[in-house]
Write a structure and sequence with these properties.
Layout (H helix, E strand, L loop, with lengths): L10 H6 L3 E2 L10 E5 L5 E5 L8 E3 L1 H15 L1
Antiparallel strand pairs: 1-2, 2-3, 3-4
């Protein structure tokens, strides 16, 4: 796994983010939202319980995550 040191993402940055619901989310409340943050980091959160916060990823970590998901679907 790729690890990078990066400053914490502020609550303000997460609040101002433009969140997008995954096109793979169904009608069973199993929804995930993604946002590209102003800092260049990526964030994901659970749509049904946004109070849980978000997981954030540096760009290289995000690319590794997406590649791993794609590989598991093939």
């Amino acid at each position: 796994m790729i690890e990078e040191s990066a400053p914490r993402v502020s609550e303000t940055e997460l609040e101002r983010a433009r969140w997008h619901k995954s096109t793979y989310s169904g009608s069973n409340n199993g929804c995930v939202e993604h946002a590209l943050l102003a800092s260049g980091r990526h964030a994901i959160r659970d749509t049904k319980d946004r109070t849980l916060g978000a997981h954030t990823f540096a760009p290289a970590q995000w690319q590794a995550f997406i590649a791993a998901v794609r590989d598991s679907l093939l």
